[in-house]
Amino acid sequence: MFACPNCGGNLKFDIRTQNLGCEHCQTQMDVYSFEDKEPNAPSQSEYDVTVFTCPQCGGEILSTDTSAAEFCSFCGASTILYSRLTKEKRPNYIIPFQKTKEDCKQAYSEMMKKAIFAPDALKNPKYIDGFRGIYMPYWAFYMTQEGEFTLNGSKSKRRGDYIYTDHYELKGEIDAYYKGLSYDASSSFDDNISEKIAPYDVKGMKTFTPAFLSGFYADTADVDASTYETDAENIANSNSIGAIYQEFSGVDVEPLLTPSALNTQTKAIDSAMFPVWFMSYRNAGRVAYATVNGQTGKVVTDLPIDVKKYVKGSLLLALPIFLLLNLLFTITPSTLLIVVAILAIISIIIYSTEIAAIKKKEALQTKKSALFSSIFAIVLCAIVGILQPANDIFYYGAVIASLLAIFYSFKDIIEYYNILATRRLPQFDRTGGDDRA
Ligand SMILES: [Zn+2]
Ligand SMILES: [Zn+2]
Is there a smaller number of Cβ atoms within 10 Å at the N or the C end of the chain? Predict the structure, then answer.
């Protein structure tokens, strides 16, 4: 805790002023006021934190404050988290929060207005108030490329019956650097969220001091930087090679430039903390996350669908469409049959792609009954279509039976969609004690 020199109250980082602010007496102070003046003091490499551990999932967040954390951001459990005091290694940089909790709630609510099929719980103001400001650890790569290259270029022109080819020798020198290619350093923060919530503007990075964390939480860095080194170098290589070919556009270049010519070197890997507003929604053994980039305000959220709302919405939409079609064309029983068969085929396609996506995402047992009901609908339509019974009642009977079957498979489709839109409850395998400090 950072005590107010005026009244002893708790100073917290104030996003609006980018200073430390006292809640009691409105005192404002520079964030770096609590910095140890001695350059080689032990506090320059480590800082004191309280680590909170969730008894249900093992997820950990840390804080410079000791007051109890009452829910877990990773699994959504409302429970008092275990706490212990420890020291953490200081990151080099931090991008302080620029978007306030109000900004974040507003951006999220704006987005949820458009999500008409989302469960009401996700739009509940009390739930939305659960957004928590968390700093996520990142690795920021600084890479250089220096080298020379020689390429053979040729350009052909056609004049009448002849083709003229000009040959060039292309010499170049590379002197490039990449600063701030960044990767999520926390195993509890899903890589697919960190990719979607990107980019962060690394120009906003400030030298880290623990006071930035006051009033916020931070996630621990537990993924080694070396995990991403090859990937970062590959990105730098393909960017530079792309830029070089861009220079010579319209010329056929040989040989192809290889990454080794660029002499890419990772000069430094800085640890940094980036701000995220984070909220979780737990339902039926699954969890959905809503995140807002604390620097840019970009919203990234898991969006499950409420089945009841979906059914009501589709029926309300289907009726006027049907009536309109009926006004415009005379719908014969046989065209109706074709429309229903097409619907069944569409449901099979959606269903199969979903199942394939689920199989890729997590090992999960999937039901086949929905697939069979859609196939049943197609077969029924085909039989009636081929037999062409004289009485229209057979057409209508087949249409109604098929629609029911399709409706049944759509229910499963939504259920599977929700599996894809949410996550398994996390289970973190943390080592106990202070051995990570
Ligand atoms: Zn004060
Ligand atoms: Zn938890």
Answer: C
